[in-house]
Specification:
Structural class: mainly alpha
Shape: globular
Bound molecules: zinc ion
Strand order of the largest sheet: 1-3-2
Number of domains: 1
Length: 153
Protein backbone atom coordinates (compact mmCIF):
# COMPACT_ATOMS: atom_id res chain seq x y z
CA UNK A 1 0.00 0.00 0.00
CA UNK A 2 1.33 3.42 -0.92
CA UNK A 3 1.10 5.89 1.95
CA UNK A 4 -0.33 9.40 1.81
CA UNK A 5 3.15 10.68 2.71
CA UNK A 6 4.62 8.97 -0.33
CA UNK A 7 1.90 10.39 -2.59
CA UNK A 8 2.57 13.85 -1.15
CA UNK A 9 6.28 13.52 -1.89
CA UNK A 10 5.56 12.24 -5.41
CA UNK A 11 3.20 15.16 -6.05
CA UNK A 12 5.66 17.71 -4.68
CA UNK A 13 8.59 16.46 -6.72
CA UNK A 14 6.42 15.86 -9.79
CA UNK A 15 4.95 19.35 -9.74
CA UNK A 16 8.40 20.88 -9.27
CA UNK A 17 9.76 18.90 -12.22
CA UNK A 18 6.76 19.81 -14.40
CA UNK A 19 7.02 23.48 -13.44
CA UNK A 20 10.51 23.60 -14.96
CA UNK A 21 9.01 23.76 -18.46
CA UNK A 22 6.77 26.37 -20.00
CA UNK A 23 3.31 25.05 -20.87
CA UNK A 24 1.04 27.01 -23.19
CA UNK A 25 -2.39 26.34 -24.62
CA UNK A 26 -2.34 24.33 -27.81
CA UNK A 27 0.91 22.60 -26.95
CA UNK A 28 1.44 19.41 -28.96
CA UNK A 29 3.92 16.55 -28.47
CA UNK A 30 6.67 18.12 -30.58
CA UNK A 31 6.16 21.44 -28.81
CA UNK A 32 6.45 19.74 -25.43
CA UNK A 33 9.70 18.09 -26.50
CA UNK A 34 11.00 21.48 -27.68
CA UNK A 35 10.14 23.01 -24.30
CA UNK A 36 11.98 20.21 -22.51
CA UNK A 37 15.00 20.67 -24.77
CA UNK A 38 15.03 24.40 -24.05
CA UNK A 39 14.81 23.77 -20.31
CA UNK A 40 17.47 21.08 -20.23
CA UNK A 41 19.62 22.80 -22.88
CA UNK A 42 19.96 19.42 -24.61
CA UNK A 43 18.66 17.97 -27.85
CA UNK A 44 16.41 14.98 -27.13
CA UNK A 45 16.42 12.21 -29.73
CA UNK A 46 13.50 9.80 -29.84
CA UNK A 47 14.36 6.35 -31.10
CA UNK A 48 11.60 3.99 -32.17
CA UNK A 49 12.93 0.48 -31.64
CA UNK A 50 11.59 -2.24 -33.92
CA UNK A 51 13.35 -5.30 -32.44
CA UNK A 52 11.83 -5.43 -28.96
CA UNK A 53 11.30 -9.15 -28.54
CA UNK A 54 13.27 -9.13 -25.26
CA UNK A 55 11.57 -6.02 -23.83
CA UNK A 56 8.82 -7.87 -21.97
CA UNK A 57 6.51 -5.22 -20.51
CA UNK A 58 9.06 -2.44 -21.00
CA UNK A 59 7.61 0.46 -22.98
CA UNK A 60 10.57 2.82 -23.12
CA UNK A 61 13.83 3.75 -21.47
CA UNK A 62 16.78 6.08 -21.16
CA UNK A 63 20.26 4.60 -21.22
CA UNK A 64 21.24 6.94 -18.39
CA UNK A 65 20.51 10.39 -17.02
CA UNK A 66 23.35 11.69 -19.22
CA UNK A 67 21.79 10.22 -22.34
CA UNK A 68 19.82 12.37 -24.76
CA UNK A 69 18.26 9.30 -26.38
CA UNK A 70 14.84 8.04 -25.41
CA UNK A 71 13.84 4.63 -26.75
CA UNK A 72 10.26 3.55 -27.31
CA UNK A 73 8.72 0.41 -28.79
CA UNK A 74 7.85 1.12 -32.43
CA UNK A 75 4.87 -1.25 -32.51
CA UNK A 76 3.10 0.50 -29.63
CA UNK A 77 0.38 3.00 -30.58
CA UNK A 78 1.76 6.49 -31.19
CA UNK A 79 -0.02 7.94 -28.16
CA UNK A 80 1.45 5.24 -25.93
CA UNK A 81 4.95 5.86 -27.31
CA UNK A 82 4.49 9.54 -26.52
CA UNK A 83 3.46 8.66 -22.98
CA UNK A 84 6.52 6.42 -22.60
CA UNK A 85 8.69 9.31 -23.80
CA UNK A 86 6.99 11.66 -21.33
CA UNK A 87 7.82 9.20 -18.55
CA UNK A 88 11.51 9.32 -19.51
CA UNK A 89 11.32 13.10 -19.70
CA UNK A 90 9.87 12.99 -16.21
CA UNK A 91 13.12 11.38 -15.08
CA UNK A 92 15.17 14.02 -16.87
CA UNK A 93 13.17 16.92 -15.38
CA UNK A 94 13.24 15.34 -11.92
CA UNK A 95 16.99 14.90 -12.23
CA UNK A 96 17.26 11.78 -10.10
CA UNK A 97 17.51 8.27 -11.52
CA UNK A 98 16.48 6.91 -14.88
CA UNK A 99 14.68 3.64 -15.31
CA UNK A 100 17.55 1.76 -16.88
CA UNK A 101 16.42 -1.22 -14.82
CA UNK A 102 13.08 -0.46 -16.28
CA UNK A 103 11.53 -3.86 -16.63
CA UNK A 104 11.56 -4.42 -12.88
CA UNK A 105 10.77 -0.85 -11.99
CA UNK A 106 7.90 -0.32 -14.43
CA UNK A 107 6.33 -3.45 -13.01
CA UNK A 108 6.90 -1.99 -9.57
CA UNK A 109 4.94 1.14 -10.47
CA UNK A 110 2.02 -1.04 -11.38
CA UNK A 111 2.28 -3.16 -8.25
CA UNK A 112 3.90 -1.79 -5.10
CA UNK A 113 3.91 -5.31 -3.63
CA UNK A 114 6.09 -6.51 -6.49
CA UNK A 115 9.04 -4.29 -5.61
CA UNK A 116 8.65 -5.04 -1.92
CA UNK A 117 8.62 -8.77 -2.52
CA UNK A 118 11.53 -8.50 -4.97
CA UNK A 119 13.60 -6.55 -2.45
CA UNK A 120 13.68 -3.50 -4.67
CA UNK A 121 14.92 -0.08 -3.65
CA UNK A 122 12.07 2.18 -2.44
CA UNK A 123 14.01 5.26 -3.63
CA UNK A 124 13.95 3.87 -7.16
CA UNK A 125 10.23 3.28 -6.86
CA UNK A 126 9.77 6.87 -5.73
CA UNK A 127 11.73 8.05 -8.79
CA UNK A 128 9.45 5.92 -10.99
CA UNK A 129 6.32 7.34 -9.42
CA UNK A 130 7.59 10.90 -9.94
CA UNK A 131 8.36 10.14 -13.60
CA UNK A 132 4.82 8.76 -14.00
CA UNK A 133 3.39 11.85 -12.31
CA UNK A 134 5.25 14.15 -14.71
CA UNK A 135 4.24 11.97 -17.69
CA UNK A 136 0.61 12.29 -16.65
CA UNK A 137 0.88 16.09 -16.39
CA UNK A 138 2.63 16.35 -19.77
CA UNK A 139 0.11 14.05 -21.48
CA UNK A 140 -2.74 16.03 -19.92
CA UNK A 141 -1.22 19.33 -21.06
CA UNK A 142 -0.95 18.01 -24.62
CA UNK A 143 -4.21 16.07 -24.90
CA UNK A 144 -6.76 17.66 -22.57
CA UNK A 145 -8.56 20.92 -23.32
CA UNK A 146 -8.64 22.01 -19.66
CA UNK A 147 -6.52 24.85 -18.33
CA UNK A 148 -3.08 23.70 -17.19
CA UNK A 149 -3.71 25.20 -13.76
CA UNK A 150 -6.27 22.48 -13.13
CA UNK A 151 -3.85 19.66 -13.83
CA UNK A 152 -3.07 17.62 -10.73
CA UNK A 153 -3.59 14.23 -9.23
ZN1 LIG B 1 11.13 5.21 -15.26
Amino acid sequence: MISEELFAEVASRGQSAFARISIREGLNFDGAIAEVEATLKRKITLNRVVDTIDWGRLTGYLVSMRSDHIFTRARDPQMYQEYAAFHEIGHLLDGRSSCSAAVRLRLAVVNWGYIESAGGNPDELLDELVAEYVAHLLASAVHLPQPVSELAW
